[in-house]
Amino acid sequence: MTSTSQLTEEERNFARFFYLNFKVSPAIARRFFDGVFPPTHLAHIINNNMRVIISLNKSKRINASQLEVLRSVTGTVWPSYLPPMPAGTKATCSKDFDLTMIICLLRNIGGLPTPSNGWDQLPHPNDMLPGADLATLKWYRNQLAHTTVTYLDNNEFTDKWNRVEKALISLNKGQKPHEVTEIFNYDLNGEQAKKLANAELSQLKKEYMDCEKEKEQIERDFSYYRERNLPKNIADANATFVKTWLKDDKSFYETKVSELVYNKVKDCSCILVTSNSGSGKTAAIRHIALKTSTGRI
């Protein structure tokens, strides 16, 4: 962008649309969220959907910073295998949820019907469901987060503004949010522009810190798994399998074939065992796995 006091009309269009998506959209989506998940029941709802939320975190749809915010909601009870929260962590509520997490929770535990084009595409203009409104906010926010262009011509601005404004009105119970009018009428010159620029800078700093936290979490996870550690749920499942294998292996008898495979395993990092169905391939492979890993057989 050029100096904030010398913006072109196309740059002012971009600035207004940017603030509409990063300043107004989260606030209106949060009001809708509080209607679906009343603040007084939020902890109970999170506790009841703990398994889904943890799964979303494991699949990276809820990042480490977002999970930390959820874990800080007063009244929530989390599994003991999660790392302890940092000392002095402040209590949180829906006011601390960003737009991405608001939409993720509404999508996965809010019971909202899937929009006509799915959650990750711009919905059809005639789709009037709340999910379509949220998908519209998500679509334009993601576009802005990855754009390298900082201007919008009047036609593009009008089209995009109307799409987002329509979604915000729908989520706001059919009423046009006063914040929309305020953003549209912003005087993007002088002191007003400086205030908005400072607000944008603060938001960017917050997003940077969130990315740093996510990076640190990924590095910790990588170090943990590189040391051949496994997540507790996987380690427990493996232990159950091994226990069953050891029990079944008591009736296994060594054969020339199993000895041949075992000797091959010692020389090769990967081998393929093939034979007719029912010939004992699985039993032999399990026996050899136990023999090479435990040394007790």
Report, as a whole number of angstroms, the end-to-end distance: 71 Å
Radius of gyration: 27 Å
The residue ranges in which pLDDT falls below 50 over 5 or more consecutive positions are 1-5
Structural class: mainly alpha
Mean pLDDT: 83
The percentage helix is 55-70%
Give a description of the structure.
- The chain has helices spanning 9-36, 42-48, 50-58, 64-71, 99-109, 130-146, 154-171, 178-184, 190-226, 232-249, 256-267, 281-294.
- It is an all-alpha fold.
- The protein folds into two domains: 9-222, no CATH class; 233-294, no CATH class.
- It is elongated, with a radius of gyration of 27 Å.
- The N and C termini lie far apart (71 Å).
